[in-house]
Specification:
Shape: globular
Region (Disordered): 1-25
Number of strands: 3
Number of helices: 4
Order of helices and strands: HEHEEHH
Strand order of the largest sheet: 1-2-3
Radius of gyration: 16 Å
Number of domains: 1
Largest sheet: 3 strands, antiparallel
Length: 134
């Protein structure tokens, strides 16, 4: 990752409220569906722009759009990955097994994700054993 410019950092701050609304939607999704561990949804405009600022160019090819595959780790702890998908897809129609397969594919292509998930799970477990929680 390259060093962000002052303008890039400022734009990230401006986009934060909209991106936080999207991730708050993820929290509500998993609260309403305790049987789910994965979700696929369209990425918000703010998330796509943040990704472009941080990772460099995020233009989707014609006929495709950016989606977010979300992995529920524990209450208050989720991981997200950005994937391309067909514009006609909303993600709402994906059952748990299909969303889980997408997460597995994303994690396989991004090996650092397994370590993040492990570290996050350990932190949540440690907080729970101290009487804390998320």
């Amino acid at each position: 990752m390259s060093t962000l410019t002052r303008a890039g950092r400022r734009r990230l701050r401006q986009l934060s409220p909209e991106a936080e609304r999207a991730t708050d939607g993820d929290r509500r999704f998993f609260e309403r569906r305790p049987d789910r561990r994965h979700r696929l949804r369209r990425a918000s405009h703010a998330e796509v722009e943040q990704m472009a600022i941080v990772a460099g160019g995020a233009a989707a090819p014609p006929g495709a759009g950016w989606f977010v595959v979300v992995r529920f780790v524990a209450p208050g702890a989720r991981l997200r990955g950005f994937v391309l998908g067909p514009l006609g897809l909303t993600g709402k129609e994906l059952p748990e097994d299909e969303a889980g397969r997408l997460w597995a594919l994303y994690a396989a292509r991004n090996p650092h994700v397994a370590q993040l998930e492990h570290d996050m799970s350990a932190a949540v477990a440690g907080a729970g054993s101290r009487g804390g929680g998320a």
